[in-house]
C-alpha cells in the first residue's frame, strides 16, 4: 500500500458504477468499484464494445443521457462529482485523436484551458504556456498551426493543454493507439512521468498489453459480458468493502 | 464526350443570363437603350434617381433592413445551435424546419403580416379581455412600419432556419462531439464550448450562405412589397415599381437604381469580409483569455430561446393563412373564425388548378434540367478525378449573390429582342438560374460521399462506367437526388421577380398571384394561395422521402 486512506481520498474513487444502454436489459458496466491513488495509473483492458470508453465518458460527464442509463458515485480529491456538469468536474481526458482546436495556434490551444479565474495577467499566462512548451521540448512552437505538427508533437501539446487546465484526475482513452511504435513508447513515458510528478490519479483504457505493462499499476479486465462487484473484489482482492483498497504490487489478471 | 461539356454547359446556363442581364441593366443606367431611343451615354438617369423624393430614406431603409437582418439572423442561428449543443432535446424542434424552409418568402410574409398586424392574431389572442380592444387599434403601425422592423422580422423568420440548416450541414465536417468534450473537460460551459471551439471551425463553411442572406435581405422585393413601408420603399421595390411603369422614360432611373442595388450588395460583401478579420482577432483574444463566465452561457440561451419563439411565429403564420383559407367570417377580436367554409376552394377551383398546374410544370421542368446538369457535372468530376475548388463554389453561389433586380430587367430586354419574353421556356430558364445552385449544393455532398467501393466492386465485375452510373450510383442515391429535387422545386415555386420579368406579367404562378392579391385582396383567397405556396413544395418533400421507401421497401439498407 502506498497511498493509505488519506491518499485514497485525494485519488479517484468509483463506487458501484453501472451503465446500461437504455432499452437493453444487460448492463454494459455492472457495479464497478475501484480506486486510484494520486500518481498511480490503473489500467482497464477489454475488447472493443466492452464499455471502456463509455465508462470514461461517464466519469468525465459526457455520457449521453438519451442513450445510456448510468448510476454510481465518483469521488475526486475527496469530493463527489457525479452530479456536476462536465466543465466543473476538473477531470482531464485524452482521446485517441488529439482534438487540437484547428482554428487556434498551439499557444491559443494551451491558453484555452488555462483558467482565467486563477491567472488573469496576460503575460503571466503566456509565460506559463511557453514554459510548458519548453518543458516538453516544444520551445518556440507558440505560433504554429496545430495541423503542421507531427503526430507525436500533437499528442504532447494535447497533454500539456490538459495539464495546464489543472485537472484533479486524468482519463486516458487509448491515447497511444494511433502513434507508431517508437513514438508510442516515448509519449507513454512522457505521460506517465507527468502523472507521477503531479500526483494525478489516472485511469487508462487500452487494448494493448504493452500499455498496461508500462503503466505498472493494477490492471482490470473488463470482459465482453459484465463486471460484477464480486468479481472486482475478487480481482482487486483486499476485502468485502465495495471500494476495495488497491494493492499496488503490479499487474495481474 | 458529352459529359465533358457538362460543366461548361452548366456555366453557360447560369452565367449567360446573369452576364447579359447585368450588361443590359447597367447600360440603360448610363442612358444607352436603343430600343426606346437612348443612344448616347449620360449620367442623367443617376441624377433623376438621386433627386427622386425620399431617395436618401429609401437607401437608408435598404441598408438598415439588409444589414440588420443579416447580423441578427447570424446571431439567432448561432445562439440556437450553441443552445442545442447542451440541450439535445431542443433538436426535436428540427421537425419545424421543413415547412419553414419550404414556404416561399412571400407566403411567409403574408402569414407573418397577419400575425403581427394591429388586427392580427397576436392582438386578437389578448383582446378584448386583456387589451379592451373590440376593434383593431388605430394609430398602431406594426406592418410596413417606417423603420422596416416588420420586414426585418419577416426576413428573420425565413433566413434563420436556412442558416441553422447550413450550420447543421457544416457541423458534419467537424468532430463536434469530441471537440465539445475536449473544451468542456477544459472547463468551458456547453454553449460557450460550442461558441469557442466548434463555431470558429464551421464559420468558413457558412460564409457563402451568410453572404446569400446578406444579398437577399438587401435586395428582396416580394417580401418587401408586403412588409416594408411603401413611401419610400426599399431601393429594389422602387426599381421594380419604375420598371413596371407605363412611362418608359422611368426605365433609365430604374436601371440606375438596380445597378446601385448591385453596388450596395458588392460593398456589403466587401465590408463584411473586411470586418471578419478584426472580429476573428478579438474572438481569438476572447478564447485565449480562458474565461469561464456564466454571462455568455446565459446570453446564448436567451438568444436561443428568442430564435425558438421566432420559429414558432413562423409556424403560427403559416397556420394562420391555412385557417383563413377555410374561414367563412372572421371578425376582430375573435381568435378563431366565426364560421367555416370550403366554398371558396370550390368556386375558385378551376382557376387555382390552372395556376397550380403552371407552377408545378415550371418547377418540375426546371428541377429536371437542374438535376441532369448537376449529376452530369458530378459524374464528370468523379471520372476525371477533379477536385472541386472554391472558384466553382463561388460561381454556383453567383445567382444567390447578385441581386435579382440587377439583372432580371436586362434579361427581359434580351428576351424581348429574341422574341422569347412571356414564354414558358423563358420562365423555366430564369427559374433554373436559382434552382440549379440549390440542387447542386444539396446533391454534391451525398454524391461525393458515396462509398467508392460500390463503384469499384461493380467495375471489377466488368460493368462499364455508364452501367455503374445508372445501375449502381443512381439507385443508391435515389433519396438524396429526390430530396435535392424537392429543394429545387420549393425554390422554383417561391420565385416572384424572375417569373414576373421573364413571363412579362403574362404567366401566373402561385407566388405571383399571391403577391398581386396581397394588396387589398380577399384575405380568404389570399389564404388559399399562401397555403398552396407552402403545401405544394411540402408535398414534393413528402414525396421525396416517401418514394424511396416504397420503391426499396424490400431492402433495409436503402430505406
TrEMBL record, chain A:
Domain of life: Bacteria
Family of this protein: Belongs to the ABC transporter superfamily.
Keyword Transport among record annotations: yes
InterPro entries: AAA+_ATPase (IPR003593), ABC_SmlMolc_Importer (IPR050093), ABC_transporter-like_ATP-bd (IPR003439), ABC_transporter-like_CS (IPR017871), P-loop_NTPase (IPR027417)
Protein name, per record: ATP-binding cassette domain-containing protein
ABC transporter domain sequence ranges: 14-248
PANTHER family registered for this protein in UniProt: SPERMIDINE/PUTRESCINE IMPORT ATP-BINDING PROTEIN POTA, SPERMIDINE_PUTRESCINE IMPORT ATP-BINDING PROTEIN POTA
Keyword vocabulary terms for this entry: ATP-binding, Nucleotide-binding, Transport
Phosphoprotein is among the record's keywords: no
Molecular function as annotated in GO: ATP binding; ATP hydrolysis activity
Automatic annotation (TrEMBL), chain B:
GO cellular component: plasma membrane
Gene3D superfamilies the record matches: MetI-like
GO terms for biological process, alphabetical: transmembrane transport
Top-rank taxon: Bacteria
Annotated TM spans: 58-85, 105-126, 163-187, 208-230, 250-275, 302-332, 352-373, 394-420, 426-444, 476-497, 526-552
Record's bilayer topology term: Multi-pass membrane protein
Primary location class: membrane
InterPro entries named in the record: MetI-like, MetI-like_sf
CDD domains assigned: TM_PBP2
Subcellular location: Cell inner membrane
Domain ABC transmembrane type-1, first and last residues per copy: 59-273, 356-547
Keyword Glycoprotein tagged: no
UniProt keyword list: Cell inner membrane, Cell membrane, Membrane, Transmembrane, Transmembrane helix, Transport
Keyword Cell membrane among UniProt keywords: yes
PANTHER family per record: INNER MEMBRANE ABC TRANSPORTER PERMEASE PROTEIN YDCV
Protein known as: ABC transporter permease subunit
